[in-house]
Design goal:
One of its GO terms (molecular function) is lyase activity. It holds the Pfam family HMGL-like. This is Hydroxymethylglutaryl-CoA lyase. Belongs to the HMG-CoA lyase family. By secondary structure, the protein is α/β, with parallel strands linked by helices. The protein has one domain: TIM Barrel, CATH 3.20.20. It contains 13 helices and 8 strands. The longest helix has 18 residues. The chain is globular.
C-alpha cells in the first residue's frame, strides 16, 4: 500500500453548514468562523452559496458575509451557484472571491429532477449554455463533479458504468470547449459509499480516465466518511472536500440531525498520524470546530475536537 505524501483539503463548512442549519445565524458569526479558518493553513475555503433566499434562508446574507470577511493572503475564497442570478451575484464580488465555473453530472435522473427540476437532456443543454456564458464573461471553467456518484435515496444503487458514462459526457464537453479541467470530483452526496464502493468506483474511473485526478466529497450520514477517506487515500486520492466540525449534509439525505460532511479536523488528524502532510495547524482547526459548535448551538459530529490530538495526550502522559 502506497499512501500519498500530502493531500489538498478544501474547506466547505461555512457554505455546507450554514445553509442547512435552521438558524438564524448572525453574519458576524459566519464571518468569525471563516476568518478563523483562514488562519489555520487551509488554502481553499468555500464561504457562501448564492441561491434563492426563500429556499435557502441561511444564505440570504451571502453578500454581507463576503463583504465582511478578512481575506488571508494565499487563501482562495469561493462560492457556488446554480443559475444565472446566482452567478451574477457572485460575479459582483469577484474582487473578494475566486470565481470559477463548474460543470456537474447527475447519474441519478431522479435526484437531478428533485434538486434542480431538470431532465437529463435539459441539464446537458443548460450546461452547454453555462459554458458559453462563462467564456463570454472571461470566467475559467476549472471544475467538474459527479453528484450522488455512489448511490441515491431516490434511485438506489448507481451502477459504476453509469458514473463512467457521465464522466465520459463531461470529458466530451471538456474537449469540445477546451476547458482546463484535470480533476473530477466524485460526491457521495447522500452517504451511500462504503470503503469497498469507494475503491471500486475510484478504481474504475482511474482505469477508464487516467487523464483525470479524482477528488472525493464525502458525507458522514451513516458514519462511513473517515473510513471512506482512508479507502480513497489507499487508491491514491489527494484531493478532499471537508467541513469543520462535520457541519453540513444534504437536505435530501436523511432525517434532521443526521451527521453532515466529513469532519475536517478528523481527516487532518488521520492524515497527520499516518505521516501525510496537509499544511494545516490541527490545534487551530480544533479551535475552529469548537467555535462552529458554539455558533450553531448544538453538538457537532466531529470527534477530534472533543478527543484532542494524540500529541496532547502524549505530552500529558509524559508530564504525569
Amino acid at each position: 500500500m502506497t499512501l500519498p505524501s500530502s493531500v489538498v483539503i478544501s474547506e466547505e463548512g461555512p457554505r455546507e453548514g450554514f445553509q442547512i442549519e435552521p438558524g438564524p445565524i448572525a453574519a458576524a458569526d459566519k464571518i468569525a468562523l471563516i476568518d478563523a479558518l483562514g488562519r489555520t493553513g487551509l488554502k481553499y475555503i468555500q464561504a457562501v452559496s448564492f441561491v434563492n433566499p426563500k429556499r435557502v434562508p441561511g444564505m440570504a446574507d451571502a453578500e454581507e458575509v463576503v463583504g465582511g470577511m478578512t481575506l488571508t493572503p494565499g487563501v482562495e475564497y469561493s462560492s457556488i451557484w446554480f443559475n444565472e442570478i446566482g452567478l451574477l451575484r457572485a460575479w459582483a464580488l469577484r474582487d473578494r472571491l475566486t470565481i470559477a465555473g463548474k460543470i456537474r453530472a447527475y447519474p441519478s435522473d431522479a435526484f437531478l429532477k428533485k434538486n434542480l427540476n431538470r431532465s437529463h437532456e435539459e441539464h446537458l443543454e443548460y450546461t452547454r449554455y453555462e459554458i458559453g456564458r462563462y467564456k463570454n464573461m472571461g470566467i475559467p471553467v476549472s471544475e467538474a463533479s459527479v453528484t450522488a456518484a455512489f448511490g441515491c435515496n431516490f434511485a438506489g444503487e448507481i451502477p459504476v458504468e453509469r458514473v463512467l458514462s457521465e464522466i465520459g459526457a463531461l470529458k466530451a464537453l471538456i474537449v469540445e470547449h477546451d476547458l482546463p479541467i484535470n480533476v473530477v470530483s466524485l460526491a457521495d452526496t447522500m452517504a451511500w459509499a462504503t470503503p469497498n464502493t469507494i475503491k471500486r468506483v475510484v478504481g474504475a474511473v482511474q482505469d477508464r480516465f487516467p487523464e483525470f485526478d479524482v477528488s472525493l466529497h464525502l458525507h458522514d450520514t451513516r458514519g462511513m466518511a473517515i473510513a471512506n477517506a482512508f479507502a480513497g487515500l489507499q487508491m491514491g486520492v489527494v484531493y478532499f472536500d471537508a467541513a469543520v466540525g462535520g457541519l453540513g449534509g444534504c437536505p435530501f439525505a436523511a432525517h434532521r440531525g443526521a451527521a453532515g460532511n466529513i469532519s475536517t479536523e478528523d481527516l487532518v488528524f488521520m492524515c497527520h498520524e499516518m505521516g501525510i502532510e496537509t499544511g494545516i495547524d490541527l490545534d487551530a482547526l480544533i479551535e475552529c470546530a469548537l467555535l462552529a459548535e458554539r455558533i450553531v448551538g448544538h453538538p457537532l459530529p466531529g470527534q477530534v475536537m472533543r478527543g484532542g490530538t494524540l500529541a496532547k495526550f502524549r505530552e500529558g502522559a509524559r508530564s504525569r
